[in-house]
Design a protein that fits this description.
eight-stranded mixed β-barrel, about 45% helix, Rev_trsase/Diguanyl_cyclase, Diguanylate cyclase, GAF-like_dom_sf, six-stranded antiparallel beta sheet, GAF, globular, about 750 residues, alpha+beta
């Protein structure tokens, strides 16, 4: 019988048993039959609950515990030796399912172990659902003295029971999600409830897949939204935690479209698949603000847990059908790869190495040439990776564009390096996808001596090394070092703090004056973000801005900076007489990838009342040089609003100036490295004055950054540089300090 048929039978057998003992007995019998085992034992919480082929009283509990710990692979059962294998069961009642088989060919294959683990996962889900329902029932019984509360819990129990029944009947996910949103909306007394899930081909994007109380046309528009731009729902997924906003109208993470629809209060909690956040369940009110009390939070989590159970159950069934081989490339799937890793580590007398190979430019090819071309690229990459391996090695496809390689029999961490080099070299060659396409790869290498690491640890180490390769420029390999794990843990902690900082309003702005070098008049300010962490103190931008860009959190942070800066400068200009000042705001490449950016800029100008020509958006040279076609389109749309554009850090590392003609740039900001030596180094002075003359020839304004003493000021002014900023004039100032500088006689 095929593995998928065996799993389907197992699913049906377990789902038809309404009680724990019956499910235990059915699961053990079905597993023994499917794997042709002589003996099968199910232990829950260290106690034997069901057996086949062996009386419960004869079960060697201690020996089975040794098997479950991976320390034994054979046992004497019923008077003769048996090969044994096992699969663990997690959840509220952890346990282990052990199978034994006697005879000369008794050993279990990797495919059979994968099948057994799939069965254990199905049993875990069924037992978890039974445990959840029993808990809800006990909870209602314990509170029968509170009639109103009991009635609410009883209604919740009835709704959850119906959802659980649909899960057991394998009702399509879309119908289950519709029931979840309707039930959640009814019981919480809210006006809107939605389910959003991550896109399979790009986990950085999310789409609404079900909703109650939200127009169908709005639901259809909410597709493939970057998580950082998805407001509370996106934060719930990114932070893997419940997020509440009781006054949405003043929230810095408000989604413009929902704010325009007058959303008042919103709460979201993550939906999980096998413990990993893959979506969110969100509720909201339009008529009035609402305080999300503990009861509402618990109820939302209960519905989210059932949505999680539904999606885990559906995707587990789907994954079981594809767990052995990847249907596109023919490589091993994740489950089979992990099983072979475990076997290699358990039997190794020499070291084992794992490589994680992540394609660097796959998304660009997929987006520009289409999904069929992307699939062809993955097949071609898989063939090239396989060609670099020995007969006993294993290649696998772990996710969309991520591959893995298992190399047993390695002497040390240096031995797998030539394999990584061969893979990189082969991937450099063009792929024929109708037209030539090029990709590179970032490779992480992890090595384990015998008995040193388990499979999951080794895979994590390889993944950390791969991420390090990406950070160091991509198209390279890195070998795992323990410092990588420590740095990763610190980064995880900082990322969690960063997500909370957005909700808790922990950011503030500093304003550095921009001065006319001839008259000394302040003509503008540059807005610079600072993070006032409650325990770390002030966190330097260089410590959190790269992380914000990497995680996408720069999108809500950048929008807050833009709105706050426009609002503050508009208020200062309303108090000034004479020429109003400008405000310069730095723009990240991640922000520029957002299609809604021109609308966000327009909204910030409109809500603040700041004239468009008083706003300057600063872009880095690298952003312009490495631009996509959509970049120029968005900048043109922003320019059409009347906003001015500046190139920041001009002259650092790029010799081509062609982008000055292609992009609608108004201002050149001369990098501090030129200004530092403008007095003492003739070459630096010549280059700096040359940039100034280039700006004048192209009718562009020039701003010199980092002016620190009078000699630099005189040299730049003599060279006809128009504007400047730096500590010679003022450091970045708080709002109150700049108030005093702009209005020295004004007590306000």
């Amino acid at each position: 019988m095929l593995a998928t048929q065996q799993l389907t039978e197992f699913l049906s057998v377990v789902a038809d048993r309404p009680a724990g003992p019956a499910a235990h007995d059915a699961a053990v019998a079905c597993a023994a039959r499917a794997l042709d085992a002589d003996v099968a034992v199910l232990m829950i919480d260290n106690g034997v609950v069901a057996t086949v082929g062996l009386p419960s009283a004869d079960v060697p509990a201690y020996a089975l515990a040794e098997v479950a710990a991976g320390r034994r692979h054979t046992l004497d059962l019923a008077g003769r030796p048996h090969a044994v294998t096992y699969a663990t069961i997690g959840g509220a009642e952890p346990g282990v399912l052990v199978l034994g088989r006697g005879g000369p060919d008794a050993a279990f294959s990797a495919e059979e172990v994968c099948l057994l683990r799939g069965m254990a996962r199905v049993l875990e889900l069924s037992l978890s659902s039974l445990h959840m329902l029993a808990s809800e029932r006990r909870y209602a019984e314990e509170n029968d003295r509170l009639l109103d509360f009991l009635q609410q819990r009883q209604r919740l129990f009835e709704h959850l029971t119906e959802i659980q029944r649909e899960i057991a009947l394998r009702t399509p996910l879309e119908q289950i999600f519709d029931r979840v949103t309707r039930s959640c909306r009814e019981l919480l007394g809210v006006e809107m409830c939605t389910v959003g899930l991550l896109e399979a081909d790009d986990p950085g994007l999310g789409s609404l897949v079900a909703g109650s109380g939200i127009p169908a046309e709005v639901l259809a528009q909410c597709t493939r939204i970057p998580l950082p731009a998805a407001g509370v729902s996106g934060l719930a997924v990114l932070g893997d935690e419940l997020v509440m906003v009781e006054d949405y109208t003043t929230s810095p993470i408000a989604v413009p479209a929902m704010a325009a629809a007058r959303l008042q209060s919103v709460m979201a909690t993550p939906i999980h698949e096998n413990g990993r956040p893959v979506g969110s369940l969100t509720v909201g009110t339009f008529s009035q603000c609402r305080e999300w009390d503990k009861s509402a939070q618990e109820m939302l989590r209960a519905f989210a847990e059932h949505a999680s159970l539904a999606i885990t159950d559906a995707r587990t069934l789907e994954a079981m059908n594809h767990s052995f081989l990847d249907s596109l490339t023919g490589l091993a799937g994740r489950a089979l790869f992990l099983t072979r890793m475990e076997e290699a580590l358990a039997t190794a007398t020499t070291g084992v190495a794992v490589l994680i190979v992540d394609l660097d430019r796959f998304k660009v090819v997929n987006d520009s040439l289409g999904h069929p071309a992307g699939d062809a690229l993955l097949v071609g990459a898989a063939e090239r990776i396989k060609s670099c391996l020995r007969d006993g090695d294993t290649a696998a496809r772990l996710s969309a564009d991520e591959f893995a390689v298992l190399l047993p029999g390695m002497a040390d961490a240096a031995e797998p390096v030539p394999v990584a080099e061969r893979i990189l070299a082969l991937l450099h060659e063009p792929f024929d996808l109708g037209s030539e396409a090029y990709v590179s790869a970032s490779i992480g290498i992890a090595f384990s001596a015998p008995g040193e690491d388990d499979a999951q640890q080794l895979l994590v180490h390889a993944d950390l090394a791969m991420n390090q390769a990406k950070k160091h420029g991509k198209d390279r390999y890195e070998v795992f070092e323990p410092d990588m794990q420590r740095a990763f843990q610190a980064s995880i902690e900082l990322e969690a703090d960063l997500r909370r900082a957005v909700v808790r309003h922990e950011f503030e702005l500093r304003y550095q004056p921009i001065v006319n070098l001839t008259s000394g008049e302040i003509t503008g300010v540059e807005a610079l973000i600072r993070w006032a962490h409650p325990t770390r103190g002030e966190v330097a931008p260089m410590d959190f801005i790269p992380l914000a860009e990497e995680t996408g959190m720069i999108v809500p942070i950048g929008e807050w900076v833009l709105r706050e800066a426009c609002s503050r400068v508009a208020a200062w200009n309303a108090r000034r007489s004479g020429q109003p000042i400008t405000v310069s705001v730095n723009l990240s490449a991640v922000q520029l990838e957002q299609p809604a950016l021109p609308l966000i800029v327009q909204s910030a100008l409109t809500s603040s009342g700041l004239p468009a020509d008083r706003l300057i958006l600063e872009l880095t040279e690298s952003l312009l040089v490495d631009h996509r076609p959509a970049t120029l389109t968005r900048l043109t749309e922003i320019k059409a609003l009347g906003v001015r554009l500046a190139i920041d850090d001009f002259g650092t590392g790029y010799s081509s100036l062609a982008y000055l003609r292609r992009f609608p740039v108004d201002i050149i900001k001369i990098d501090k490295s030129f200004v530092d030596d403008v007095v003492d180094e003739p070459t630096a002075a010549a280059l700096t004055h040359g940039i100034i003359q280039l700006g004048r020839a192209l009718q562009l304004s020039t701003i010199a950054e980092g002016i620190e003493h009078e000699g630099q000021l005189d040299s730049l002014a003599d060279g006809n540089c128009e504007l400047g900023q730096g500590y010679y004039f003022a450091e970045p100032l708080t709002r109150a300090a700049l108030d005093e500088l702009l209005f020295p006689a004004d007590p306000a």
